[in-house]
Specification:
By secondary structure, the chain is α/β, with parallel strands linked by helices. It has eight helices and eleven strands. Helix content is 37%, strand content 23%. The N and C termini lie far apart (40 Å).
């Protein structure tokens, strides 16, 4: 079985300035946020990811079969999202291939969007977004956008390995973590993440429709959240709620 991840470009671009990644994770926050950006900006499909180690899944949209991990966008902004959880065996190859592809496209900054489980999430009217970056430039951008730094903690899952790959390869990676429900789809957290991206990238994506359709989104993504929660348990995702034992 091949471990190679192939990014198939149906609309090749010579360069991409910004790449946003949001996959099923805590609260489905990243997936919901990135899907909303794709829909709101009417970004065209430009590629997808193929591999023998990805789940044997196809999704159907308006009668058309689609690969679940797809890339949308143009030369200024591209966005990758997945409509199925990424299994543990695929996380490392996907992260390496994605970062390698981003570098080949001269991506300036790779943005990862995810959620951080928050015990008192029900008490929060507007979830806060925390940021991490692999470079001083990214940290300065977060500060200018009013995004608080995540000072201490763990990251587990696809975004953790993307962060590691970017750090190793010298690509600026900004990770946005919105306070989220752990086991329930969280459109409110996704809206906070979208607003943070609006500030960072000068976008004008309205989150009003996202919030209005929150209940519909929760119903539509309930089964995906259940499958994602099982996947998160296998990769020890709850470790993100702990603090490191040592500070260096």
């Amino acid at each position: 079985m091949s471990e190679e991840m192939q990014i198939v470009e149906v609309k090749p671009l010579s360069s991409i300035k910004y790449l946003i990644v949001g996959m099923p994770d805590t609260g489905l926050t990243g997936m919901i946020a990135v899907s909303h950006i794709i829909r709101s900006m009417n970004l065209p499909e430009i590629g997808h990811v193929e591999s023998d180690i990805l789940p044997p899944v196809m999704v159907i949209h308006q009668g058309n079969p689609k690969v679940p991990i797809r890339i949308f966008g143009d030369e200024r902004l591209a966005a990758l999202t997945s409509e199925t959880p990424v299994n543990i065996a695929a996380i490392a190859p996907l992260s390496r291939s994605l970062v390698r592809w981003a570098i080949s496209k001269k991506v300036d900054i790779l943005f990862s969007v995810s959620g951080v489980a928050t015990q008192n999430r029900l008490e929060l009217e507007t979830p806060q977004v925390f940021g991490i970056s692999t470079s001083k430039r990214g940290l300065d951008m977060l500060k200018s956008a009013g995004v608080s730094m995540l000072e201490e903690g763990f990251m587990v899952g696809p975004h953790a390995l993307i962060l590691r790959e970017c750090l190793t390869k010298g690509l600026t990676n900004i990770v946005l973590l919105a306070q989220s429900h752990y086991q329930y789809p969280d459109p409110g957290a996704a809206a906070s993440a979208v607003n943070a991206l609006n500030s960072l990238l000068g976008l004008k994506v309205d989150v009003g429709q996202l919030l209005e359709e929150a209940e519909e989104i929760r119903v539509k993504t309930r089964e995906l959240m259940q499958r994602t929660a099982r996947s998160l348990q296998r990769m020890s995702k709850t470790q993100e709620q702990e603090l490191p034992a040592m500070y260096v």
